[in-house]
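User: My instructor asked us to take a sequence, write out its structure as tokens, and then describe one feature of it. I'm not sure where to start. Here is the sequence I was given:
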Amino acid sequence: MKIAMIGTGYVGLVSGVCFSDFGHDVVCVDKDPNKIAQLEKGIVPIYEPGLDELMAKNVSAGRLSFTEDLKSAVDGAAAVFIAVGTPTRRGDGHADLTYVMAAAAEIANALTGYAVIVTKSTVPVGTNRQVKKAILKANPTAEFDVASNPEFLREGAAIDDFMRPDRVVVGVQTPRAAEVMNDIYRPLSLRDFPIMSTDLESAEMIKYAANAFLAMKITFINEIAALCERTGADVKMVSKGMGLDGRIGSKFLHAGPGYGGSCFPKDTQALARMGQDHASPMQLTETVIKVNDEVKRRMVDKVVDICGGSVNGKVIAVLGVTFKPNTDDMRDSPSLTIIPALVGNGAKVRVVDPQGQREGEALLPGVSWLEDAYKAAQNADALVILTEWNEFRALDLKRIAKRMTTPKMADLRNVYSPKDAKRAGFSAYVSIGREGFGV
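Assistant: Let's start with the prediction itself. The structure tokens for your sequence are:
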């Protein structure tokens, strides 16, 4: 089966590579000639563990190719996936559908026979019907169906999520479209992974509802963490006790500096705007957005407090700036709130991140980039852990403490414990939702 994938961003590239590994003939399309040139050379423009090897394997097998020519990619394709960006629209919080609708118009003019036009991008409820209208307007004689197939990929674990999904959601209008989508996902259904077929609107809503619920779960445990700090409870024990309840589960119950990334911030905002537009306010989601912003700002106070009430002139080593480990994604990362606030208050910030420098250099002016935690800690006044990369989970804390001018740690991911820090020689330690010392 030939598949055209319009867009080679995170979702489009991962999906295209994985579909080709199913055995389909996949052509990935992008308007950026530099990106296509890179991909043709085997260079992956994003960091996702294992993606470069899987891409090379399927290119070598002749199942995966890249092009700027949308028309040739769509010609003869059984399915055309739209996987372009839907960023938050500046000023009103809505999802910006400019790229989706532009892709739909181009696809309409490229169709040569029946195809299913599949929206993979995260889009507001009703968008697939708009896509259908746009295609018919551009090409009234086009023979096609539309389908909604939202993605549920976690950055850093996207290949495993695609190949071993909790579920695949497919929204369709006709049996013919359902048959094509079933053929595409047959390798998964043969292994008994759930393929859920539904209407267009429900498929669109499932994506937003799932992400908003997970964002709410993160925000809830962060609020509990703040209360734990006031009452003497330990949020790690509270999270464990909650997570053992099968009705709740342990995932997304890890206190930290707030959620970020490419999905949760824009999807919660889009859902809140949908609620307002349909006179059905998403009050929980609106509160989640507000509280998450407050959580990020509260982290700045923790660092300032551990530095004695002022960071002016202080050297602060920050470990991790991407919104989570195993990705180079900086979008809405807590670091983009916390680090500029420290720099703005006079701190000299040193940053270490295994993958974040490429994007971070433009987003975090005024900081110094170093290669490892031990160099960053040399003569530093405080150490801040912002992203729990594996290389930051087993640091030689004694070595770190000896290098610092004043060995103080703000562990904003609860990687270590107060006992670990005290034993290593730290004079002050704070974390999230637990008692610290020396402050």
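For the description part of your assignment, you could build on this observation: The radius of gyration is 24 Å. Try explaining in your own words what that tells you about the chain.
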